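FAQ

Q: What does a record look like?
A: Structure on top, sequence underneath. For example:
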């Protein structure tokens, strides 16, 4: 499947809205908080796989924001919400930027879609300046509750997830690209239902409350296994 208008209307984006206070909105707000906390305000920031442009647009008020995506349709649509960001169509595996060009690079739920994620991570290492920050998120095969979901686990639901890996494999690739870890955490258990016959709203409250609290406060406290995504914050050596 190609990453075209049909993809954005039938997969991840079909289950969320761009409205304020949606799960998508809170996720972007959380990653923007991380970028502002660990990056240098006013510096150059790149979002690899900028999709519909909402995160890059948010961060363009704090950084000199760049965004790139393989999908030309998405890049074109992004102009409406990321007017101040510099956007272009490109491949994550061949980044069209100079060595050490960025202080912050965000790659949020992109590496699992790539045929060669190791090449993409090496490219990110190349374009990140010494002391710069990588913020990466991807489905967490090490999630404690993944066995409860079995074949219905969220990471298996998108057929374009062709490069799912164990957390340790991702960490090795990131280290090999010249990064050292600042924080490795997760995003909570939001893929309800986990238990049959228990109403979804109750399960959202029981399982999703910690992830929601982390997203709202921006305070990282969830261990790597306590969620459906692994989130890595690392610094370029």
């Amino acid at each position: 499947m190609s990453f075209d208008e049909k993809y954005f209307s039938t997969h991840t984006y079909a289950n969320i809205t761009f409205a304020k206070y949606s799960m998508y909105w809170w996720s972007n707000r959380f990653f923007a908080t991380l970028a502002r906390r660990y990056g240098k305000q006013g510096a150059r920031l790149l979002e690899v796989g900028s999709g519909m442009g909402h995160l890059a647009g948010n961060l363009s008020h704090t950084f000199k924001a760049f965004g790139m995506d393989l999908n030309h349709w998405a890049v074109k649509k992004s102009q409406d919400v990321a007017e101040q960001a510099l956007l272009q169509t490109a491949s994550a595996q061949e980044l069209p930027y100079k060595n050490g060009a960025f202080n912050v690079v965000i790659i949020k739920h992109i590496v699992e879609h790539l045929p060669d994620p190791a090449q993409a991570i090496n490219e990110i290492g190349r374009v990140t300046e010494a002391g710069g920050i990588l913020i990466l998120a991807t489905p967490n095969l090490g999630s404690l509750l993944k066995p409860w979901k079995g074949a219905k686990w969220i990471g298996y639901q998108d057929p374009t997830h062709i490069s799912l890996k164990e957390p340790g494999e991702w960490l090795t690739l990131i280290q090999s690209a010249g990064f050292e870890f600042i924080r490795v955490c997760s995003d909570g258990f939001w893929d309800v239902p986990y238990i049959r016959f228990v109403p979804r709203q109750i399960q959202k409250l029981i399982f999703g409350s910690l992830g929601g609290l982390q997203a709202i406060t921006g305070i990282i406290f969830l261990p790597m296994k306590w969620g459906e995504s692994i989130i890595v914050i690392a610094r370029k050596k």
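Q: Is there anything notable about this one?
A: The first strand starts at residue 44 and ends at 48.
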